[in-house]
Amino acid sequence: MATTTIRWTGVAIDCADAGPVAHFYARLLGFEIGDFDPPGWAQLHDPAGGVHLNIQGEARYVRPIWPEKPGEQAKMLHFEVQVDDLEEAIGTALQAGGTEAPWQPPDRDRDRIRIMLDPAGHPLCLFLRGE
């Protein structure tokens, strides 16, 4: 049995340009952006603690296709972001440089969940907190 401590502390997102993606998530999640050091890399911190988010610029980045299509670049992961006011959160995401995905799953209630795309095309779900 291992005796070392193993703890998840964050996740990294690849994209072509770290700046717009870092600013998008900082605004959407209320995270603080650290230095862009090395260039093309940013680390975002939750001021309340918890996991951090790294944004890594990658010259060979290929934007994912949403919804997924056979033979095309698929998403590798997506964020589930719980909100108190869906319309306000959508507005925040749009003002931060995101877009609403043109395709929304037909089996989801658009009044409770909305698929958004960050500036690099990564899908994320904004969903209304349950009653």
Supply the number of helical segments.
Answer: 2
Uncertain stretches of 5 or more adjacent residues: none
The count of β-strands is: 8
Radius of gyration: 16 Å
CATH fold node name: 2,3-Dihydroxybiphenyl 1,2-Dioxygenase, domain 1
How many domains make up the coordinates? 1
Strand order of the largest sheet: 1-4-3-2
For the record, give the distance between the C-alpha atoms at the N and C termini, rounded to a whole number: 42 Å
Report the CATH C-level class.
Answer: Alpha Beta
Q: Main sheet, how many strands, which sense, barrel? A: 4 strands, mixed
Output the helix-strand order: EHEEEEHEEE
Mass-distribution shape: globular
- Annotated CATH homologous superfamily: 2,3-Dihydroxybiphenyl 1,2-Dioxygenase, domain 1
Fraction in helix: 10-25%
| Mean residue pLDDT | 94
Query: What structural class should be given to the helix and strand makeup?
Result: alpha/beta
The CATH architecture: Roll
Write structural notes for this entry.
- The protein contains two helices and eight strands; from the N terminus they run E-H-E-E-E-E-H-E-E-E.
- It is of the alpha/beta class and 131 residues long.
- The protein has a single domain (10-128), classed as 2,3-Dihydroxybiphenyl 1,2-Dioxygenase, domain 1 (Roll).
- The strands form two sheets. It has a four-stranded mixed β-sheet, with helices on one face.
- The longest helix has 12 residues, at 18-29.
- The radius of gyration is 16 Å and the shape is globular.
